[in-house]
Amino acid sequence: MKIIEGGVTSPIGFKAADCAAGIKYQGRTDMAMVYSEVPCECAGTFTSNQVKAACVLWDQKIVNSGDKMQAVVVNSGIANACTGKEGFDACEATAKAVEKELSVPFNTVAVASTGVIGMQLPVDKLVAGVEAMSKTLSHDKEAGTKASQAIMTTDTINKEYAVTFEVSGKTVTVGGMSKGSGMIHPNMCTMLGFVTTDLAIDKKLMQEALSAVIKDTFNMITVDGDTSTNDTLLLMANGLAGNDVITEKGEDYDKFYEALFTVCRFLARRMAGDGEGASKLFEAKIVNAKSKDDARTLARAIVGSNLSKAAIFGCDANFGRFLCAMGYSGAEFDQNDVELFFESKAGKLQVFDHGNPLDFDEDFAVKIMKEDEVMVIADMHEGNEEATAFGCDLTYDYVKINADYRS
Asked: Cβ atoms within 10 A of the Cβ of 217, count?
């Protein structure tokens, strides 16, 4: 597998475009489109929130129907959630605009939205945006990058990644883009994520791979404990790489799984580090746990704790906060088995050893925690399972951003 520059337009046959539709923001792009020259097999995962945006319901219908998918239209600024029939009608109008412009069936067009909940989308602006983007679709890397920028809300950086690998003597590419900065505590996937590939693969295997990959990538993010109404992750495969269709698990499937995992993990870490107001990526790694579920539960509890996040922001090696979070996580363990460490590019420091606090170098601890990426490691000494969760520190700016989000 090889990492390459690019994103959703990196695989053969995929194009992207963006535009400034003026849906909510002024002076910036706020709509994006991803389009395949041929229909794609598709897979998806969606929010577990009982309150689902109209676009989530629209996309679930496409994925679950077994139909192909050929395009995705995304807007930022307004979430199209809690909008009743009018919100669903906006999805249909957007899809039918793509049908008119690109001659693809409207029921193969996915839609996604992100932004303020409870506001209606201006359908005229959506349709005008589709018309504009249909004329500027491009294979260029830059087109994919601009699309990833157009779907940002409170994000400070765009998020895209791509890799290649070999299957049946053919070069296959997987590319992706995502957005997400706040209201992130997913139980199914991420805020918004779109992954493209030119691989030929059976739809059921695609869905199985995606559902498995998210468990240790997007499902391990937590920024603020809020699960969005709009969480959507879509995977499109158009088969234009020309490989023999993957219809069963084996070496070729494993290569695809690794590539998909790599792209999703990069995007997940990128999102966590760009949490609203964040100054650093905060990771928790659990090793030697009794079970995979315990490892995931413990890791997410650590990065999800506001007290832990505040300690990371303040560069305070107050290890009791991390142990406390582990203790109320629901996973059972003996604190007398646990070792706790802080680690970053500046070094690694043990602060807790089998039930006992250690007399550690506070200055060295501060040095470790001042880095842009900080990890807390807990060795449970109870098994051989591990998991890593991705979060960020809790800063003053988080409250400022969310106190005036609608304005």
From this structure: 25
Q: CA–CA distance from 46 to each of 58, 61, 64, 362, 368 (Å)?
A: 11, 11, 12, 43, 36
Q: What domain range includes position 356?
A: 281-403
Residue 190 pLDDT: 46
**Cα–Cα separations (whole angstroms), residue 376 to 330, 363, 401:** 19, 17, 27
Known active-site residue 190: yes
What is the average pLDDT value for the chain, to the nearest integer? Answer: 92
Residues 173, 216 within the same domain: yes
Per-residue model confidence (pLDDT) at position 189: 45
Q: How many domains does the chain have?
A: 2
What pLDDT, in 10s, does the model give residues 87-138? 999 999 999 999 999 999 999 999 999 888 999 999 999 999 999 999 999 9
Among the listed residues 29, 190, 297, 395, the single catalytic one is 190
Q: Name the binding residues for substrate.
A: 153, 179, 190, 276, 402, 407
Residue-wise burial string across 222-248, b where 16 or more C-beta atoms lie within 10 A, e elsewhere: bbbeebbbbbbbbbbbbbbbebeebee
CATH number of 152's domain: 3.60.70.12
The Cα–Cα gap between 155 and 149 comes to 9
